[in-house]
Structure formats: structure tokens, C-alpha cells
Design goal:
Layout lengths: L2 H4 L2 H9 L10 E5 L3 H8 L8 E6 L7 E9 L2 E8 L3 E7 L4 H12 L14 E5 L2 E5 L6 H12 L8 E6 L8 H13 L5 E5 L4 H9 L4 E4 L2 H11 L5 E5 L6 H9 L6
Parallel strand pairs: 1-2, 2-3, 7-11, 8-9, 8-11, 9-10
Antiparallel strand pairs: 3-4, 4-5, 6-7
Length: 263
């Protein structure tokens, strides 16, 4: 995310760390210990010592708040939350995927974990017309696409068939072509029955998926994407829908559900 404007992940880190300058002394700061850039910033002393950072993670053994013994199920993620100060206890969130566990760990620091619900179109699970649809179309980047596809790989569809409707990731600048091709290759590796790719940049996604052996089709318009979905999907199937917000995948989904005509 933001690579088009900032140019590199290191520059994104610099911009994020600028937030520290506006925090008062002793302010709490939740930081991901598994993020290589943040971990390096810690080692280099770039996290202001006047703050009170709390490090969370899954892999880093030194994190003060950790999730261990992760288990995925139809209702979401279960894990053991290990707090260096307050002990360990069982935790669960009604959302799928390891990336959501990271969000839960960050939320724990703000005492908001128990109140979590998937908001808007951020991995909301919907049951419509016999389909299970994961609406994850609020936004998209290469990292979030990888996370969603990894989650969907472990998702148990009722009748076993899983499809994806994936659209353009916007504002990627010079990495746009390779990023979309990489998503296509990933889609081919996670056990999908088919991929419907929508949007100009997603042509490369569909082509890469096809080369990797996946039944993939590229659609230039919402009407084409809807037609391809209707042709492929049947009751019992699961569908992952994800793209940048500007692609407006929700219009295709509402038409698929029969809730409104395609706009």
C-alpha cells in the first residue's frame, strides 16, 4: 500500500514513524514484532525511548503479547493469548486468517478485543442464495491479497468448491504488473476451482493464473464478471471477493445476490 507515492517500504516506515513525534512522553504504542521493518527499527534505536511501546506478534519469541496454538474454524480463529504481564488465556475472534490474529493482538492492547466485529466489507462472511461469500472488497494491496488467499486456502467450503472474484489493486505504481501477476500465481496455488479477474490491471493476474494451471477468466466490465460468476457458481460453493475500493465489487455481489440490478 502507498508504494506509488512513497516509492519503497522503507519510506513507508519512515512516514509511519513520524507519528511518534506527535505522541506525548509515555504514550502507549502497539507495534508488530513480526514485521521485519519495525523489528529493524527497534534494533537501530529508531523507536523513541520516551514512549511506552508494547510489542505483539506470533513468531517473535520476545514479543510481550503473543498468539500461540492458532486454530482456524468455520466461526473464525482461536488461539492462546500470552501476555507477559497478565498471563495466558484462550481467545477467539469471529474473523478468518492469521492476519486478523495480528489485528486482534493490536486491539488487545486497546482493550477492544472482546468487542471486535468485521466492519463493512472487511472479510465479512455472507450466506446468500446457497453461496458462502467472503466480502473482502473494502481495499486491497499485495500483502492483503496474499493474506486473504492464505486464509481462503484453509477455508472449508460446504461442498468443497472455492472460487475467487479478484479485482485491480490500485495505486501500486511501478510494481503494478508484477504484483497482479504474483496474485494470479498465488490464486493458482491455493486450491481454487476458478478465478474471475476484473479490471484493466487484472488481465495479467488472469494470464499468470492460467499459465499456472487455474481455470481463470479476465473480465473488463462488471456485467462480464457477473455473467462469469453466474455461469460457474452453484449452491454450496464459496466465493472470495477482493479488490481495491475503487473497483466497487459490492455492485457485482449485490447483483449476484439478486438484491439489485447491476449499476
Amino acid at each position: 500500500s502507498h508504494l506509488e507515492t512513497l516509492g519503497s517500504r522503507e519510506n513507508i516506515l519512515k512516514a509511519k514513524l513520524e507519528l511518534c513525534a506527535g505522541l506525548p512522553d509515555g504514550a502507549p504504542l502497539a507495534l508488530n514484532a513480526d514485521d521485519e521493518y519495525l523489528a529493524r527499527a527497534k534494533a537501530e534505536g529508531r523507536i523513541p525511548g520516551r514512549l511506552a511501546p508494547v510489542w505483539y506478534g506470533i513468531d517473535a519469541p520476545w514479543a510481550e503479547v503473543r498468539a500461540t496454538a492458532l486454530e482456524s474454524g468455520p466461526e473464525g480463529e482461536r488461539f492462546t493469548l500470552e501476555d507477559a504481564r497478565h498471563g495466558s488465556f484462550a481467545a477467539a475472534i469471529p474473523a478468518l486468517g492469521r492476519h486478523n490474529v495480528y489485528d486482534a493482538l493490536a486491539a488487545y492492547a486497546a482493550a477492544a478485543l472482546a468487542e471486535y466485529q468485521a466492519a463493512g466489507m472487511r472479510q465479512r462472511v455472507v450466506h446468500k442464495e446457497g453461496l458462502t461469500v467472503i466480502e473482502d472488497c473494502y481495499n486491497a494491496s499485495p500483502d492483503s491479497m496474499r493474506a486473504s488467499l492464505a486464509m481462503f486456502q484453509g477455508f472449508a467450503a460446504k461442498d468443497g468448491r472455492k472460487f475467487a472474484l479478484l479485482g485491480d489493486m490500485l495505486e501500486l505504481g511501478r510494481i503494478e504488473a508484477e504484483a497482479h501477476a504474483e496474485v494470479g500465481r498465488l490464486a493458482a496455488a491455493v486450491g481454487l476451482a476458478g478465478l474471475v479477474a476484473f479490471g484493466p490491471a487484472s488481465r495479467g493476474m488472469a494470464e499468470a493464473a492460467q499459465k499456472a494451471g487455474l481455470d481463470a477468466v479476465w473480465c473488463q466490465t462488471p456485467a462480464e464478471a457477473l455473467e462469469q460468476l453466474q455461469r460457474r457458481l452453484r449452491p454450496g460453493d464459496a466465493l472470495l471477493a477482493k479488490a481495491s475500493r475503487g473497483m466497487k465489487l459490492e455492485n457485482i455481489l449485490k447483483a449476484l445476490y439478486g438484491e439489485q440490478a447491476l449499476q
